[in-house]
Queue: 2 jobs
Job 1
Amino acid sequence: MGTESAGEPTTAIWARVRGRLRNEVGDAAFKSWLKPLTLRDVHDGTVRLMVATRFMRDWVAAHYGDRLRELWREEDHSVRAIEISVDPNLAEAGTAVAEEPIDMRGRTRASGPADSLDDDISAPLDPRLTFENFVVGKPNEMAHAAAQRVADAKTVPFNPLFLYGGVGLGKTHLMHAIAHRIRQTKPDKRVIYLSAEKFMYRFIRAMRYKDTMAFKEQFRSVDFLMVDDIQFFSGKDSTQEEFFHTFNALIDENRQVVISADKPPFDLERMEERLRSRLGWGVVADIHPTTYELRLSILESKAEQLGVAVPSKVLEFLAHKIVSNVRELEGALNRIVAHSDLVGREISLENTQELLHDLLRATDRHITIEEIQKRVAEHYAIRLSDMHSARRARAVARPRQVAMYLAKQLTTRSLPEIGRKFGGRDHTTVMHAVKRIEQLRATDAGFAEDIDLLRRMLEG
Ligand code: ADP
Ligand code: MG
């Protein structure tokens, strides 16, 4: 700790300044805003303080900056300024981003686009998750278009945007992309992106420090609020309540809200009715499971980004085998690229199969009846609902039997369980279907080939 000012150690002065401020502002505000300040040193007439996050820095500068300087000057006349810098190492959750200090005489030294993002409450953005890197296909085109609209519109186009879909299908990617785009094109707008979990954590902390006013102010003064994975609020009543108020306040002020969840608003469990209904007021866009075509384009795009030539056979193989989600698809590609880099061998279908052996086996075990139904329905171009329907027309009955047969072959489900998944059919119906398909396989080579193809696709 520097002791440039003559005489008393700066630590003693700092302790007195803090003591006086505490008396002036009260315990709660002191705890939230002033206690977390750390004295770095006093250098060249400038008192240098550190704090964990950008938001805290701005808040302290705006609310206590002048008073801090006055009090310090009363102790030491040589002090002319106070400077607060952000040191993310001081953060508990480690989410702040390091940057330039702010100068308390008024202006921010580090001004510019980055300032529009409130790194304190906002989680850091992954620079790779942009619109440019998002591959659009049938399953996600609606969600993508809605996200782009929100990011590019001059005025709020609809509110909220509610994105939903299964794990690893691109919800977080789209939200980051919105934030990046606004950062670029509307640097004066305040954008907060955070997980529902973090929202709750912030809220609870604010309550503990009896500082909910500051909490409300932080959230209600933004132009774009994006909360990810809101299913996390399920059963958390007081957080839901607070979120509901924040949400309403923002919407009333015509600020854009973007929400994501793993289900549509009305399927969110243990969620207050009025919140659920309010969440569905704007545009609700779902991201469907990937198709083979989308998986292939994503792989092509990622391989290009990695700057490696991957044989199309390998990409096709991966797109066939790894159907669960995009994250796993990416993981598999990264693995084979890293491996070939490491051992200096070209990527081939053979070494890919070898390398991903464990991963492919793991996906085998996860085949569900729903997946089978979906695949088979796609394959025969019938509606998914026909898997459950009572229709007996050959065009739907045969594919349904194929799906039952594959469910028996590829899952560990019992005949009655399978029957239930097919619109509550009896186990004897399933048994009959299995027998029928076995017969057909034995007598019709073309049919047998078709079934084997389906099976290979499902087995991954
Ligand atoms: P979610 O939030 O829905 O669980 P993420 O947005 O975290 O999923 O996506 C998981 C991974 O897959 C991320 O690395 C993301 O970049 C990638 N990803 C998902 N969808 C796409 C897409 N359409 N194009 C490119 N990458 C994608
Ligand atoms: Mg996510």
Note: The beta strands are 38-43, 46-51, 81-86, 102-103, 161-165, 191-195, 224-228, 256-261, 283-287.
Job 2
Amino acid sequence: MNAKSIICFLAVMFAIFCGIMPAQAGANDFITPGKVWNDTDGNPINAHGGGILYHNGTYYWYGEYKKGETQDGRIDITGVSCYSSQDMMNWKYEGIVLPAVKDDVNHDLHPSKVLERPKVIYNSRTGKFVMWAHVESADYSKACAGVAVSDSPTGRFTYLGSFRPNDAMSRDQTVFVDDDGRAYQFASSENNATMYITELTDDYLRSTNRYTRNFIDKYREAPAVFKHNGKYYLITSGCTGWDPNQAEIAVADSIMGPWHTIGNPCTGPDADKTFYAQSTYVQQVAGKRDCYIAMFDRWNKNDLENSRYVWLPILFDNGKISIPWQEKWNFDCYTKNSGNRN
Ligand code: GAL
């Protein structure tokens, strides 16, 4: 190295140290719930109400790209964003994979409408990536599911339209693919009073007429599903809009129910308010038998773009499930917990 390159190197190190330049990919070794998370370009990750797809060794995180002013709890639709990662700590921005449709005021994706909780699943029969989302009018009276499809996980997705599965309202929602390849939509229905679980068609593009009504009149929303040791688990929130409330976890032997409520899985400070956050998805760490990440959104209702992510480990100990608060953690925490096997 000559004197000029040494000066250059020191200047770059100084800029990274001062936070002027983003550090390179691979920089995040921990998950820091509630803090600003930057992507590999150094921009805050913008993927709210999101979900993850693990496909061919890569994690894809899809979410609501919330940009601009929040007015009366609503923000214009920009689209669904996608980020990719090998380790779920360092995320590369892949762009807006389902953009708003600006030139048609009647379109579901016009900026004046609402687009929430997008989730993407892969259909191995058709080779297509299928997105389901909550599609709304500005006053939340539409209560529909919207479906989009793509040949690639990074889009673009083609929007197919919206409908009410079995003519039932569909608001907060997620989709889940079981080990046998069958897929299901979980959605808050009947004005959010009851959770519907609906089997999807083989191509995952529509609902079948097989569905069950669950948690009747219990007003549960923000569903996040996972399967562990042959049992199905469902994390939900109560219905208090953008304000936090207490989470609940339920268990079932069959995905269509009956579901049995276990209680609040969260432990630690502010566990009764889900750490000021709301569930959105659960993702298993690939190749690790008992390692699941519970994903929550900490909504900032006056500035939705600046809502934060709270991701925490799900711990299993002697049949007891907990989601303990952590300031900062990585996947080592699973091995430190005796109940979780790798
Ligand atoms: C919450 C819901 C969010 C959003 C919000 C609007 O209950 O979980 O996804 O719809 O209401 O107030």
Note: The first strand starts at residue 48 and ends at 55.
